[in-house]
Design goal:
The chain is an alpha/beta fold. The protein is built from 21 helices and 20 strands. Helix 7 links the parallel strand 6 and strand 7.
Length: 551
């Protein structure tokens, strides 16, 4: 009997063993009293790193950036119903981005939950709208298996957040010391049907085939997408609001991001014979348009990681599902020898010439405004892009990047992420989280409005000395909203009185804000100043905030 007792440990210790085995020894959180069993267990767990966010939304967004960069589920621990409530906005964004997260929150002691004690709540119901799977663990023996299931569900396409409610007394229960085994995942394999799809693609004029990259395509699939585009001589587009990049922006086949406007997308696809969608979705609309983005009669082919994606946007004339990296590689290898190589190579050469000329034209138009003060958004963004080294990771949620400059934006696989869910401010903490997993510098592109949603990220960046440069493009207003009002002809726009859209009286003092969080900062205006400030920031072993006023 005594030997049996010695083989028993607290459930929270089993929890840490599962996290170790899942390579999730970085924990993002904001602790409270219901999380004390976990915090106490971490005291003697020197192989874990606890990353503190000063607000729960900041903690989740840091985890989101970390998960996107590492391409595996990140672990988050929140505090009770109030903490989960604070995090909900960012979790909406994580769901939209299909970011794999295992989110937990401390629950009150089960022995008096019936009496509705302070800090208790129906956490499972609160989390259900934003999670793939939710559960409350009621026995210590179930904690290990529940965590294993949570990680498996989070990483299975379509990826996304899962949620576990963890009562504090359950974490303290003594259970059998064994760690539940990790299920072996099947090796990546190409989807069936790639031979048939290759024949269908080869039958089209390459100049009239467009490949669309969905926003859930992982960086590991980029080489297959690149090989496919070069095998066929196809133009590749992405969506402006992509959560992650999966195609190199400097490649001749890259045709740029399409705006979230069905009318604009249809205009681009008007003369196309076939569209191949890679991933779950790429046809994203913002303002409503009574128009279909794909013209009638256009063939629609689909390659996705999950059957759930097929038919989500449009009925497919032919579809395959399977591991995207393996499938795209196999599809490219099959396509290469069956297409007219001379025609494909001529198409690639033509695309390279067109891209070089288009890039030069865009740069010339933007650079013509370098003498303007304040700079136009495109000029400010271009100055920053030119000052950053190639290994810079960009975390973006700034509308300043939506103009012509997006045609020449640096969007490289594994080095570009966007707050796909439209939740302002996500990029600041996401940049901090990504910096914890990235060898080089991280640049955060954020507007002045968005920066006020999660300024707590500055403290975490300073505390953990991340190489993060926060570029705040400041026009002292919610300019995107004003532009929408103008496009729709609303009363605000007609009257020239944009209610609730100006950030003046008082203007936000970003230098003082950064200083209060321990982050060096500066305000710069011209191309030379931007270049010099960025150079200084890149040499710093820690974060910097660079404010750039824009028109």
């Amino acid at each position: 009997m005594s030997g049996h007792l010695r083989n028993r440990r607290r459930a929270v210790e089993i929890m840490l063993d599962v996290l170790r085995d899942e390579r999730a020894t970085t924990i993002f959180g904001n602790p409270g009293s219901t999380e004390m069993p976990l915090m106490d267990a971490l005291v003697d767990a020197g192989d874990f790193r606890y990353v503190l966010g000063l607000q729960e939304a900041t903690a989740v967004a840091m985890a989101d950036g970390y998960a996107l960069k590492t391409a595996r589920p990140a672990f988050v621990n929140l505090h009770a119903a109030g903490g989960l409530g604070n995090a909900m906005g960012v979790l909406v964004a994580s769901k939209a981005s299909e970011t794999p997260l295992v989110v937990t929150a401390g629950q009150q002691d089960t022995r008096h939950l019936f009496t509705d004690p302070w800090l208790s709540g129906d956490l499972v119901s609160l989390a259900r709208p934003i999670a793939k799977w939710t559960a409350e663990v009621r026995r210590g023996a179930d904690l290990g298996p529940a965590l294993r299931r949570a990680f498996a569900i989070a990483r299975t396409p379509p990826q996304g957040p899962v949620f576990l409610s963890l009562p504090m007394d359950v974490l303290e229960e003594e259970v059998e010391s064994g760690v539940p085994p990790h299920s072996a995942m099947p090796p990546p394999a190409p989807a069936g049907g790639t031979n048939e799809l290759a024949k269908l693609l080869a039958a089209h004029d390459p100049a009239r085939v467009v490949v669309m990259i969905g926003d859930d395509v992982p960086a590991e699939a980029a080489s297959g997408a690149l090989a496919l585009a070069h095998a066929g001589g196809f133009t590749v587009h992405g969506t402006q609001v992509t959560s992650r990049a999966a195609f190199p922006a400097d490649d001749p086949c890259w045709g740029g991001m399409l705006k979230p406007d069905f009318a604009a997308i249809r205009q681009r696809l008007e003369d196309v014979e076939a569209v191949l969608l890679i991933g779950s979705r790429a046809f994203v609309a913002y303002a409503y348009r009574d128009v279909q983005p794909i013209p009638e009669g256009t063939r629609f082919y689909h390659v996705a990681a999950s059957p759930e994606a097929i038919g989500r946007e449009f009925a497919a004339d032919f579809a395959v599902t399977g591991d995207l990296a393996a499938t795209l590689t196999a599809l490219a290898a099959t396509l290469y020898p069956i297409v007219d190589r001379k025609r494909a190579e001529a198409r690639l050469a033509s695309l390279a010439e067109e891209k070089a000329q288009h890039t030069a034209d865009i740069r010339g138009k933007i650079e013509a405004g370098f003498d303007r003060h304040p700079l136009l958004p495109d000029a400010a963004v271009l100055c920053v892009l030119d000052a950053l080294p190639p290994n810079t990771l960009i975390a973006n949620d700034s509308a300043a990047t939506f103009g012509p400059v997006q045609e020449i934006m640096r969007t490289e696989p594994g080095l570009y992420f966007f707050a796909r869910g439209g939740v302002l401010g996500c990029s600041m903490p996401a940049a901090v989280g990504a910096a914890l997993a990235h060898e080089g510098p991280v640049a955060c592109f954020v507007g002045d409005g968005g920066a006020m949603y999660s300024p707590q990220a500055l403290w975490s960046a300073a505390h953990y000395k991340t190489r993060t440069i926060f570029f705040v493009f400041n026009n002292t207003r919610y300019n995107v909203l004003m532009n929408v009002a103008k496009d729709l002809g609303t009363k605000n726009a007609v009257a020239g009185r944009f209610l609730g859209m100006d950030l003046i009286e008082p203007a936000v003092d970003f230098q003082a804000l950064a200083k209060s969080m321990g982050v060096p900062s500066c305000r710069v205006e011209g191309p030379q100043e931007i270049a010099e400030a960025t150079k200084t920031a890149l040499q710093r072993k820690g974060p910097t905030l660079i404010e750039i006023p824009i028109a």
